[in-house]
Q: What sequence folds into this?
């Protein structure tokens, strides 16, 4: 019958130690399980400590006012009752840290402050652009709220020595002139209730090229090489000259009208993407809006076809039993003779007519 | 079931009550030595209620439990080492150290969980009963709660839903006379909490919660009603907790004398006297030893397990 | 061009929700609906309609006025193997049920170390514009987004109302679905099939180059309207609808802000501590930060309870004109 320690109990979640206040029993006294043997003071409250078992208070270890850590003995009992936890924690089990690690004292703030740099307010995009271009933000005059440098406050990008826009076209058309090409005209009949002719022609030409894949091609390496998509470049007259953004597979686009409007608007605003400037397999030019009846468009190499759309106008036409009025439009289909012949061109135009009439 | 005269059930009742008692004492001791974290709500003195109640149930039946739920959990068949491991914040605990004492559940044995919110489990029990009924099952749900829970809106709503939908729920109130420090007589105007059952149109009965046979009979009857589709019952079991509400409880709201009086009516000691003829002194000692050994083994196994890991905490929030 | 031509018809948002419920219940016996006045009455906003006649009173279950109790019952039923959908009549009333939502449903899977989960859905009409005043008009999504363990969804179109609800029902976690009251009567194309969307996936509703508008709930159609108006002024805005608040799909938002350099975040809920503050911080912490050419803007409800008088009610939350004005201002100033 050995001695069982009566330890300083943990009486709250944050308690790490307690102070012995007073003993209710003295050494040698008998105790019953549940009987109060002493009082301890904790960080929160004064608590009564009960004897865990029946037995005798063998010896008192902690004296009044003594501070004892949780889990350390404050007295020893002798008891015939066994210790339920005897032997289960051989080495003193490392107490679960119940309190957070003590916060280390903060480092004293260095009293000497370096000379504070001038703080410049700039939007992140401007900072990034300035860094990329080697511009010192201190040299920029801010025009944004709170003296913040806006992206547009940075000087515009230095203009690369640009060829005049005419030079680009000159180069391309000179190349075109070396291609054996001819033009086939046809006066197309248009549905009376139609509108948005540019979209209609783009769609019809794309659909027609889909039917005649041998013309949706280019002359390369001494042979006709067909494309796997139809890209209709749409010639747009802008301040910066003639631009021709490409609409890919427009005959399959349910939102073609919106995309055409969008691309024309952005072309005029100078907001086309690089991807939109390539991939054309044919070109549609429409001078009808400017009053031209018909014209011959030159090919844009390496494209093998180009459609020149003239003015949509009401014309007097023969109808069974007399005279009628119909909407007509003269188109010119230019074709690379290395890729197609007159009959091919005629058949392509026939398909265009068919698709327009739908 | 005759828990007094029939040696099989008598032994089971005694071993289980002792197991709960020793488990709670061990937890109390571990906490006092600084080896257990957080806080504990011990049910020492209340062992007869869960033991009597759960003996009227089968493994397929459900229970919902409270913040003072170790006894419910053990009586419903939980594994002691996984319970202990959870309290010791080990990876092998029921909740992998993430739930702690108040959130232990063992879904496999029908324990839908302890609950840190007073009366939190009451509507959940109604819902489990609803699921059983919708599937045409015969299981029963026992909803354990204390006297304090009867003051919560959730209690009212959960009991009412079970009543209007005739759900197979047995509402078991462990009336241990105090919410935390609020005595029952100051929290309610009725003499017995079971009177409240009438307000919901369901039967209510008050029994001696320290007599496992009385609890067992009342819960058994209620379970039979529930299985027969007759709806819920309120069983109020009068008992007493020896220890404070939690570890920070100074017991200022009750007297030492009162605690002493109730300790003299220790449900386990009383039961041992009543089954002395059925089991005999040796068998009774064997029950005590078995309980002690099971708890010690659980502590040993749990203590040797690895601590709960902080890895994969964020992945543990959503079910996949 | 869509890969598979899904049969779609035009349904209202409310009809789409009803269809989702019907299809989910037809496919899975475990799914059932409980709520106040969802049965014969047809639901306070007419969402459940005739479902009770098609599925019976057990599965379209009317309850007493007990939000805490019925949400708790949903938790219990879910734990016991069912897939309950609980309708709370106004999102404001989730306040009655907070313990079961926040302390129980959200946490059970985690607290139990993964041993159980709570596959339930809580649906509630949310938002203002019906003159119902302060206690029936709130937008409380930030409360729920702040609780680990919940998923929060705000469908803005009829198609999403259906597909996100189906996804929520499928999800093994508790999902809060907030349906804006003003959207219930809005029509839109809804696929016939019962294909759940993916939770945690944002929808880019419009792509522009000048700024990124992020909007939730009823602010999505308002933002799209505003974007049309802005286009006429030469300002092209993206509009992104997160659809799921938690877990948030931030990638499309971040990618778009990298392109546009400007963000305007629009919510009906009051400004302070609203969910757009979360998105703003997320953008600020992301690679998009270095591409910002303007401070991240928030356009939110006023920090006031929703007032009763119609002009006051309108003034308390962003309208289409407000979105257009703030967006234009942002683009011009920065």
A:
């Amino acid at each position: 019958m050995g001695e069982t320690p009566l330890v300083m109990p943990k009486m709250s979640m944050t308690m790490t130690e307690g102070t012995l206040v007073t003993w209710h029993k003295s050494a040698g006294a008998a105790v019953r399980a549940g009987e109060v043997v002493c009082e301890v003071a904790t960080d929160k409250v004064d608590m009564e400590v009960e004897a865990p078992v029946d037995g005798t208070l063998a010896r008192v270890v902690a004296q009044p006012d003594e501070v004892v850590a949780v889990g350390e003995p404050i007295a020893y009992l002798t008891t015939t009752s066994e210790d339920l936890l005897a032997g289960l924690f051989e080495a003193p089990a490392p107490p679960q840290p119940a309190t957070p690690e003590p916060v280390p004292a903060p480092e004293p703030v260095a009293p000497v402050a370096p000379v504070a740099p001038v703080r410049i307010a700039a939007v992140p995009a401007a900072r990034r652009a300035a860094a990329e271009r080697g511009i010192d933000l201190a040299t920029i005059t801010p025009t944004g709220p709170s003296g913040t440098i806006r992206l547009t406050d940075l000087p515009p990008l230095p203009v690369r020595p640009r060829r005049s826009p005419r030079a680009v076209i000159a180069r391309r058309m000179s190349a075109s002139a070396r291609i054996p090409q001819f033009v086939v005209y046809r006066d197309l009949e248009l549905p009376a209730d139609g509108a948005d002719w540019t979209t209609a022609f783009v769609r019809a030409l794309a659909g027609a090229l889909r039917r005649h894949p041998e013309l949706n091609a280019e002359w390369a390496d001494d042979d006709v090489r067909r494309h796997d998509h139809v890209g209709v470049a749409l010639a747009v007259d802008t301040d910066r000259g003639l631009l021709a953004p490409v609409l890919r597979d427009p005959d399959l686009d349910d939102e073609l009208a919106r995309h055409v409007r969008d691309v024309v608007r952005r072309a005029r605003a100078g907001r086309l993407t690089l991807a939109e400037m390539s991939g054309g397999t044919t070109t549609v030019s429409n001078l009808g809006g400017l009053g031209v009846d018909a014209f011959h468009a030159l090919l844009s190499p390496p494209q093998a076809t180009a459609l020149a759309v003239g003015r949509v106008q009401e014309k007097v036409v023969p109808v069974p039993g007399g005279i009628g009025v119909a909407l007509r439009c003269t188109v010119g289909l230019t074709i690379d003779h290395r890729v197609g012949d007159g009959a091919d061109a005629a058949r392509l135009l026939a398909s265009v007519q068919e698709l327009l009439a739908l | 079931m005759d828990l007094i005269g029939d040696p099989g059930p008598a032994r089971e009742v005694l071993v289980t009550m002792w197991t709960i008692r020793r488990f709670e004492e061990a937890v109390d001791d571990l906490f006092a030595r600084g080896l257990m974290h957080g806080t504990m709500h011990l049910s020492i003195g209340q062992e007869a209620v869960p033991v009597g109640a759960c003996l009227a149930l089968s493994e397929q039946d459900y229970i919902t439990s409270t913040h003072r739920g170790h006894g419910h959990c053990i009586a419903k068949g939980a594994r002691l080492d996984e319970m202990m491991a959870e309290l010791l914040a080990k990876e092998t605990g029921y909740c992998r150290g993430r739930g702690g004492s108040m959130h232990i559940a063992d879904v496999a044995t029908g324990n839908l969980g302890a609950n840190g919110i007073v009366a939190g489990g009451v509507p959940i029990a109604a819902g489990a009963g609803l699921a059983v009924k919708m599937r045409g099952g015969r299981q029963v749900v026992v909803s354990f709660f204390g006297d304090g829970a009867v003051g919560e809106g959730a209690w009212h709503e959960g009991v009412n839903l079970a009543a209007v939908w005739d759900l197979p729920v047995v509402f078991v109130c462990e009336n241990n006379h105090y919410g935390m420090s609020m005595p029952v007589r100051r929290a309610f105007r009725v003499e017995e909490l079971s009177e409240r059952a009438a307000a919901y149109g369901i039967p209510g009965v008050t029994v001696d919660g320290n007599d496992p046979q009385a609890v067992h009979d009342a819960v058994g009857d209620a379970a039979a009603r529930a299985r027969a589709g007759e709806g819920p019952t309120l069983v109020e079991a009068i008992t007493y907790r020896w220890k404070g509400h939690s570890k920070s409880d100074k017991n200022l709201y009750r007297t030492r004398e009162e605690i002493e009086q109730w300790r003299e009516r220790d449900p386990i000691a009383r039961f041992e006297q009543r089954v002395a003829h059925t089991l005999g002194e040796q068998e009774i000692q064997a029950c005590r030893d078995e309980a002690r050994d099971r708890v010690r083994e659980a502590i040993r196994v749990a203590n040797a397990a690895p601590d709960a890991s902080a890895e994969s905490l964020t992945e543990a929030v959503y079910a996949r | 061009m869509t890969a598979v031509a899904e049969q779609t018809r035009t349904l209202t948002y409310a009809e789409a929700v009803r269809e989702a419920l019907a299809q989910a219940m037809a496919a899975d016996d475990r799914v059932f609906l409980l709520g106040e006045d969802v049965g014969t009455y047809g639901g306070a906003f007419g969402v459940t309609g005739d479902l009770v006649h098609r599925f019976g009173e057990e599965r379209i279950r009317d309850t007493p006025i007990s939000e805490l109790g019925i949400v708790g019952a949903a938790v219990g039923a879910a734990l016991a193997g069912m897939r309950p959908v609980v309708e709370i009549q106004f999102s404001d009333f989730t306040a009655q049920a907070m313990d079961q939502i926040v302390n129980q449903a959200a946490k059970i899977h985690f607290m139990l170390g993964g041993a159980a989960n709570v596959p339930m859905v809580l649906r509630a009409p949310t938002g203002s514009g019906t003159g119902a005043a302060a206690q029936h008009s709130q937008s409380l999504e930030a409360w729920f987004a702040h609780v680990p363990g919940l998923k929060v969804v705000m469908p803005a179109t009829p198609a999403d109302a259906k597909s996100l609800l189906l996804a929520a029902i499928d999800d093994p976690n508790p999902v809060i679905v907030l349906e804006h009251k003003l959207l219930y009567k809005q029509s839109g194309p809804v696929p016939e099939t019962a294909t759940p969307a993916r939770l945690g996936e944002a929808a880019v509703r419009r792509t522009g180059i000048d700024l990124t508008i992020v909007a939730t709930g009823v602010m999505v159609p308002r933002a799209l309207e505003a974007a049309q108006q802005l286009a006429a002024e030469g300002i092209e805005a993206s509009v992104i609808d997160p659809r799921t608040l938690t877990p948030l799909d931030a990638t499309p938002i971040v990618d778009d802000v990298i392109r546009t350099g400007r963000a305007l975040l629009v919510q009906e809920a009051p400004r302070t501590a609203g969910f757009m503050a979360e998105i703003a911080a997320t953008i600020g912490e992301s690679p998009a930060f270095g591409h910002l050419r303007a401070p991240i803007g928030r356009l939110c409800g006023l920090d006031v309870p929703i007032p009763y008088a119609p002009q006051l009610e309108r003034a308390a939350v962003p309208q289409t004109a407000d979105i257009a004005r703030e967006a234009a201002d942002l683009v011009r100033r920065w």
User: Anything to note?
Assistant: Chain B is about 45% helix and 10% strand. The CA atoms of residues 73 and 111 of chain B lie 7 Å apart. Strands of chain B lie at 62-64, 141-146, 169-175, 204-208, 233-238.
